[in-house]
Amino acid sequence: MLHGELIIKVITVLGTAAFALSAVLAALDKKVDIFTVIVLGTITAVGGGTIRDCILDSPVFWSMDISYIVIAVVASIAGFFFFPLIQLKKINKLYLYIDALAIAMFAVQGTDKAWSLGFGLPVAPVILGTITAVGGGIVRDVLLQRPSLLLTKELYAIPVALGCLSYSLVLSLAPQYSSSGALFSAGLIVFMRHLSIQKQVIVPNWAIINRGK
Q1: pLDDT digits (tens, 9 = 90+) for 25-44
Q2: Is 15 exposed, middle or buried (0-12, 13-18, 19+ CB in 10 A)?
Q3: Would you give the distance in Å from CA 213 to the centre of its chain?
Q4: Can you tell me the distance from the alpha carbon of 173 to that of 78, in angstroms, rounded to the nearest whole number?
């Protein structure tokens, strides 16, 4: 069990840093100052988890462990100085992959937290894992006034939901393999996002609302 808790802790740290970095990448063309970047990165990093904890009526995770705020701030500062050195044509793809890593990490972490609290089993952990994963990105995109990936044809919410579902199944049917299940579920999300980013795999037309003319 301790091993599983360590895996989730590492996943949470990686997700926090990745979401902060995704916010910095998204803000590169806005010519914002370092203080704005820190605020944007921090809000993005903790946004989804904060929404989840409010729904769970649980202490907000970063209020119990301020190190997550520190991680977000450090990642934001590092991104502010490093990312401008990268060629512009590589920025968008890098942003998409870092975002993919972030949503994968937080999808698993959010599902695990809801499950450990016994909240609305077995369906609610899937929903809250999805909210945790996409919440920070939505906040980031709203603040930057940019289209959200959630509202595009890219595979975005579907990989997250499938990842949360697969991890919930592991927790339900084979909890002794929770660590392996967490890594598999996160990997599944990243792989499906890779297919969308690199291979242009998109949501099929039949699954998209098509308003008649």
Answers
A1: 999 888 899 999 999 999 99
A2: buried
A3: 36
A4: 41
Tell which residue, 2, 155, 12, has the closest CA to residue 72.
12
Structure tokens at 13: 């740290």
The two structure tokens encoding residue 164: 């949360």
In tens, the pLDDT along 167-187 reads: 999 999 999 999 999 999 999
Q: pLDDT digit string (tens) for 66-113?
A: 999 999 999 999 999 999 888 878 898 999 999 999 999 999 999 999
Residue 213: exposure state from Cβ atoms within 10 A (0-12, 13-18, ≥19)? exposed
> Using CA of residue 31, residue 37, residue 39, residue 41, what is the dihedral sign?
positive
Q: With H, G, I as helix, E, B as strand and everything else as coil, classify residue 140.
A: helix
Residue 55's nearest CA partner among 110, 14, 11 is 110
Backbone phi and psi for residue 145, each to the nearest 5 degrees, phi listed first? 55, 50
CA distance 92 to 103: 16
Task: Please give the C-alpha separations between residue 101 and each of 53, 88, 105, 133, 165, in angstroms, as whole numbers.
Answer: 21, 21, 6, 10, 17
Tokens 């579907």 sit on residue: 158
